[in-house]
Amino acid sequence: GGGSFSRSFGGGGPDPFGMMFSQSMGGGGGGMPAGMSGMSGMSGMGGGMSGARQSARRPAAPPRFDAIPPGTVVSLKGLVNASDRNGDRGVVKQYIPSSGRYVVELEDSEETMSVKPSNLLQHVHVRIHDIQSQPELNGKTGTIITWNSHKERYAIYVMDLKKVVSLKPGNVVLESGTVAQVTGLSSRPELNGKWGTIKDWVKESNKYDVQLSPQQVIRVKVENMRV
Fold first, then answer.
1. N or C terminus: fewer CB in 10 A for the chain?
2. pTM for this prediction
3. For 209-221, how does the pLDDT look when each residue is reduced to its tens digit (9 = 90+)?
4. What is the C-alpha separation between 207 and 217, in angstroms, rounded?
């Protein structure tokens, strides 16, 4: 079941990569100071009536399954016009549906950039699966550090072993709730390039159930989803 997978995923001790990042971002990915959020709460109370009238006119937007969630740690890659920024880390602040881009707040600065999803690498947690040559790695958790497009492999920092290993996507199981892109499907090529939320991992077949929209869930091989 996906529940036990998600629960067990949280274990494994602190992730030094994530800890370093959260400290440099100010501990929480850079929210508003406590005083500010308190003030906005007060003004929200005062404007409660007008807010209620507005929401009655305009229904709430349905949840998106194709957008990387705010707070996700990312790094920039493949930028041409700002190539000096490639490798810089940041945090996703919001998704702009009209442009299909993300607002990313860069690490150690207040600066934000508008970035296409193809220029982002998500530093998400993963579980290593089905490596025949190094079975001691199987079941270990780690964090994606880089993606080598020539070799088509992720560099994964394995927390328990305190080392980086290079793995194919088929051996890297993404955590439930991760938003990833469909790639390399020959049976349904029209789905390639779409983004969806990983709902569950089916260990027996090494496939994901991926929610593309409120109505559509697909089952695809692990190697066909990339972050």
1. N
2. 0.73
3. 999 999 999 999 9
4. 13
